[in-house]
Design brief:
This protein is an alpha+beta fold. It has two helices and three strands.
Length: about 140
């Protein structure tokens, strides 16, 4: 209604908006921190899976276990626990690391990732017989 007049604020109402904002701000910050933490957890899981896949590729190509573990840690994180098994024609890599909230607070959860690839069976390299015998230039 256009002709309606606002009633004046009383002394008890002054600062009510500020008080409501101050009461709601911690909850909003908490929700924002949880959303950021969830995004960081998702990104960490993706990097963990990338590291496990890289280690599985190295293992399938015939690299030694130390090289594969170093590859997983370089790609994903230094705090990984990596286990590698070769089962017949397959190389399996499993990695575990602790979950951290906002990258700081460690909780009693773990992120895990696994990868399995067939081992490449390369033909044995041809070993050269040695240097070619020297021939003399006189045709003999």
């Amino acid at each position: 209604m256009p002709g309606r007049r606002r009633r004046p604020r009383t002394a008890g109402e002054r600062g009510a908006v500020t008080g409501e904002f101050a009461a709601a701000l911690p909850a909003a910050v908490l929700v924002l921190m949880l959303l950021i933490s969830l995004a960081m957890h998702g990104a960490a899981q993706v990097s963990l899976e990338d590291g496990v896949r890289a280690a599985a590729r190295e293992t399938a190509r015939g690299a030694d276990e130390a090289t594969a573990i170093e590859t997983a840690r370089r790609v994903a994180d230094e705090e990984l626990e990596v286990s590698i098994t070769r089962d017949g024609d397959y190389a399996r890599v499993r990695a575990v690391r602790p979950v951290r909230i906002l990258g700081l607070v460690e909780v009693a959860l773990e992120q895990t990732a696994e990868a399995e690839l067939p081992v490449e069976h390369l033909p044995p390299a041809e070993v050269p017989a040695g240097p070619e015998p020297a021939t003399s230039g006189d045709g003999s």
